[in-house]
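Record type: monomer structure entry
Structure origin: computed from sequence
Chain ID: A
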Amino acid sequence: MNVYEEYKKKLVSAEEAVKIVKSGDWVDYSQTCSFPEDLDAALAARRDELEDVKVRNAISMKPVQIVEQDPDQKAFTYNLWHCSGIDRKYVDQGRAFYSPMLFRNCGSYYSRGYAPVNVAMITVSPMDKNGYFSYGLTNCCMQEMLDAANHIVLEVNPNMPFVFGMECDHIHISEVDYVVESTKPLGIAPGGAPSEIDKKIAGNIFPYLYDGITLQIGIGGMPNALGGLIADSDLKDLGMHTELMSDGYLKLYQAGKITNKKKTAEPRQRCILHL
């Protein structure tokens, strides 16, 4: 059987794919852009059939249907490694639960068995001629999460770019249980325009920066405000060390500020800028 025949054999509807989830399971959506929108909606539609299903994710970029369609949490419990603005509202309303963690250790939580995964559901790029799907824009502790999973369902989306790499950034058709096709737009982290308070905080930080400094800026209005200040400044040869590229970094890159020339720890991260 060639890879295209195997793909066709495993291709099902989202409604069919989510039948693999049983009561009591841990389901993992991974993080950020890997969010499987169609599978999430199909799983939410099973709210009257299931109970005690724990779903794990981080930095939701769109409304999450297993939360929206099950407000009393009769079937699903939503757990978060990190929170977006949407997630903070869920947590404040008691509809989601934040799991304290150190991001650098996240992969080991899976590999050491602290974060069980019965079913992994993630969005990936379309398959290449060799049968591989790229993790695309999300590749943090993806490999460890998938290695820990008992079952894997891929939501293939042409809007997810194929990012070329060597290892731990792709999965083969032979390793998955089901494939679902989607054309939904990928989620975009809501940062919003910086508020006046964001601008004031950024203005207080800016005088402490200097040429060659390595930056770690996060998500939201304040980091974006700081990125704009730096982009318009005379600072140069800045380094980037981050698990996530936000709009603030994009402004800096477009302005030619990030070169990593002066960076001493993990200087190879400069390749991230060219993906």
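Annotation 1: The chain has ten helices and eleven strands.
Annotation 2: The radius of gyration is 20 Å.
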